[in-house]
Specification:
heterodimer, A: about 120 residues, mainly beta, six-stranded mixed beta sheet, five-stranded antiparallel beta sheet, B: mainly beta, seven-stranded mixed beta sheet
């Protein structure tokens, strides 16, 4: 089946450092989404990307939809302790026939920030 | 604020005792999803409703059922919970038909099976 390869699996960084994580696929995707999940909570949508090459920012977060439509990255600048959590990429592959928004999720990147 | 609400946040049930989890939304989205998420894993889609049309994932056990009595509410019924069904259950919604606008998740219900 369809798979998303998300890396790194985990990161331990110092407060103030920049962070970068990415997702890749062997299939073409129509949409890329980035979520953050805090312990015991549901994922929160951070950024949604709909066009190849699209670069979108949300505060200190920046994400891009790769030109090949097979990858996306998320950058976090000047990390702070509340950035701690698990970040998931998710996308809808282009060969999905429906318009019901079914998503494929990456396995997540666990971010730890040392004050 | 428009949102996705899940009740209860924590649910304890006994092995084999039916349990129902509920989800409501004020976003007026036409698609509602149920996911199962186990520790350190990505959410796994169980099924979804597109309006009133139910769509089951191929690998969702028969033990899991769902009901959507109206646009705002959706229920997850676990007929005979086993120890392996202990997990976080996430409800999500989206506005489909005009392309993927992103799925919006509720806070989840943590299910414990004793």
């Amino acid at each position: 089946g369809q798979q998303l390869n998300q890396s790194p699996q985990s990161m331990f960084i110092q407060e103030g450092e920049d962070v970068s994580m990415n997702c890749t696929s062997s299939s073409i995707f129509n949409t890329w989404l980035w979520y953050k999940q805090d312990p015991g909570e549901g994922p929160v949508l951070l950024i949604a990307l709909y066009k190849a090459g699209e670069l979108t920012s949300n505060g200190r977060l920046t994400a891009q939809f790769g030109i090949t439509r097979k990858d996306s990255f998320l950058n976090i600048s000047a990390s702070i302790p509340s950035d701690v959590g698990i970040y998931f990429c998710a996308g809808q592959p282009s060969n999905y026939g429906g318009s019901q928004g079914n998503l494929i999720f990456g396995k997540g990147t666990k971010l730890s920030v040392k004050p | 604020d428009a949102m996705v609400i899940q009740n209860p946040r924590y649910q304890v049930t006994q092995f084999g005792k039916p349990v129902t989890l509920s989800c409501s939304q004020t976003l007026n989205h036409n698609v509602m999803y149920w996911y199962q998420q186990k520790s350190s894993q990505a959410p796994k889609l169980l099924f979804h409703y597109y309006d009133k049309d139910f769509n089951n994932e191929a690998d969702t056990p028969d033990n899991f059922q769902s009901r959507r009595p109206n646009t705002s509410f959706c229920f997850l019924d676990i007929r005979s919970p086993g120890l392996g069904d202990a997990a976080m259950y996430l409800c999500a919604t989206s506005s489909a038909g005009t392309g993927v606008s992103g799925q919006y998740f509720g806070p989840g219900t943590r299910l414990t099976v004793t």
